[in-house]
Amino acid sequence: MGYTIAQKIIREHLVAGKMTPGAEIGLRIDQTLTQDATGTMAYLALEAMHVPRVRTELSVAYIDHNTLQCGFENADDHRYIQSVARKYGVRFSRPGNGICHQVHLERYGKPGKTLIGSDSHTPTGGALGMLAMGAGGMDVAVAMAGGAYYINMPRMFKVNLSGKLPPWVSAKDVSLEILRILSVRGGRGAVIEWGGEGVKTLSVPERATIANMGTELGATTSIFPSDEVTRAFLRAQGREEDFVPLESDFDAVYDRVIDIDLSGLEPLCACPHSPDNVRPARELESVQVSQVCVGSCTNSSLRDLLRVAAILKGRRIASGVSLSVSPGSRQVLQMLADCGALSDILASGARVLECACGPCIGMGFSPASGGVSVRTFNRNFEGRSGTRDAQVYLVSPEVAAATALCGHIADPRALGAYPEVTLPERFLADDSGVLLPADEAEAANVEVVRGPNIRPMPLGEPLSDTIVAPMTLKVGDNITTDHIMPAGAKILPYRSNVPKLSEFCFTVCDETFPARARAAGRSIIVGGANYGQGSSREHAALVPMYLGVRAVVAKSFARIHAANLINYGILPLTFADPDDYDCLTQGDELAITGVFAGLESGKFTLLDKTTGKSFALTCALSPRQRDILRAGGLLAYTKGEGK
């Protein structure tokens, strides 16, 4: 039996465990990336491990999230990250240099390498044939320190593409189509490999859009073959020497195979408030729009923005629409300017924002109250835009441009002939926006600079054999990390100040939760299916830990969030019978006894002391995870192991 692409990379990087689906494996990590919303805590953890120098082949710290400097907080974080990166051997991508995934794809991604990043859309690197995965910042810190990254051996899904995309249909529509097929839960525990003859018609930027959006399936990662299309992209970036051919074996076996005919697709939209709520654009033309945003790590490549510029050229956006365009990198912005496409964008009435995540995480350009915003982004969770009652639709750059011109959601095929766009054979390769670290001799003299908003890393407490605590919160299905720990310009600046950040925990669901959790001291949260969906932000586990949450009981968990809960000493427990969820009421006094025995057996009992009812729970843990929980979290465990 042959190997899939992912299995080949895993086999070459395996340092612990066996490649049995569902079993825990440890992988050697070649590259890491961090961004500033999660990076501060990751580097605080790295410092606490007392490792003098990172041990990966390449680690890069990107500044792309918290770029609005309305006070000193974000600037202080940037200064801290720059100084700690210089000291510990990490490259530092300056503010304005671009979005981490776009820049990493352009300048650092290599076929066959492993990459983890403290951002859930790190799988974008799969467009180059990398095994690229999102992870919590603590896991990234361990990898930078030379430790393995642990996941459960994933299942293998294959998407066979045939045909070719018709005019006005793009890679974003492929992403929305697979979300329509699988849903936001359908990829959990799996690697999505893209293949078939249709793959050869997709450029690397198009593949990157699809790999990026695979995160919304709940997948471990997505991956494409490294082929002549990959070679051409790397050659255009001036680094053809990084090319390595990589494809699956002809007799590789997959757990599921899905066929998609590219030629049969049409422009699609994801409606509020979930990326899998997909409908054809032609069915939504009655939806009036007040805002359109083009950009994010999903659709901010030169190819995407040249297409938008060609559609807007000689036209003006509708009077009731505000259009923003955010290039994914300084390289993209400079090349748009050099070829004149930037002028076409500006002449349409668009507002050009800096090369950063920006509106995608609610960092500026929030919609008006009750506004309808059409975005080329990857998530449309409620409140994520920075406006709680906004209605956000996810679309391709083509649909976005047509919508901006028409003032309502528009099928771009009505605009006529599809404008041809030709990409240059060579891209601008200017790495001056990335600062190199000090050499090892100089590093000892580098001072790490901390501002007053940077607080020490909170530590968890060792697990106890009995947990008796009130249920301070009960939430439903598909609770995202944006529900647990909101983003946005008002909250993100406190990512390095957990006491302050805790004031916002779960306030999207219940504004009284932080005060109630503090008053309880210890507490338990109950959730529905796919709890913790969305970003890799470890703050969604770190802050509840700080507020005294000792266990989360849910119908099921998203992969990264479950790992983050364990990393911070919180028990992620699953109902043996999902219907038991309905029997529990917020405010009930709960008890979990025999915790240590449960760690070994994987079976726990939850007693509702208020009603007297008992419920069976499960929690499948590896020996390593048991030890992490006993120690009170990954940091304490890692320091105790001397890793």
Automatic annotation (TrEMBL):
Aconitase/3-isopropylmalate dehydratase large subunit alpha/beta/alpha domain location: 7-281
The protein's enzyme class: lyase
A biological process term (GO) from this entry: tricarboxylic acid cycle
EC number of the protein: 4.2.1.3
Entry-linked InterPro entries: Acnase/IPM_dHydase_lsu_aba_1/3 (IPR015931), Acoase/IPM_deHydtase_lsu_aba (IPR001030), Aconitase/3IPM_dehydase_swvl (IPR015928), Aconitase/IPM_isomerase (IPR050926), Aconitase_4Fe-4S_BS (IPR018136), Aconitase_4Fe-4S_dom (IPR036008), Aconitase_put (IPR006250), AconitaseA/IPMdHydase_ssu_swvl (IPR000573)
SUPFAM superfamilies noted in UniProt: Aconitase iron-sulfur domain, LeuD/IlvD-like
Assembly and interaction partners: Monomer.
GO cellular component: cytosol
Domain Aconitase A/isopropylmalate dehydratase small subunit swivel: residue ranges: 521-577
Protein name: Aconitate hydratase
Keywords per UniProt: Iron, Iron-sulfur, Lyase, Metal-binding
Required co-factors: [4Fe-4S] cluster
Family: Belongs to the aconitase/IPM isomerase family.
Molecular functions (GO terms): 4 iron, 4 sulfur cluster binding; aconitate hydratase activity; metal ion binding
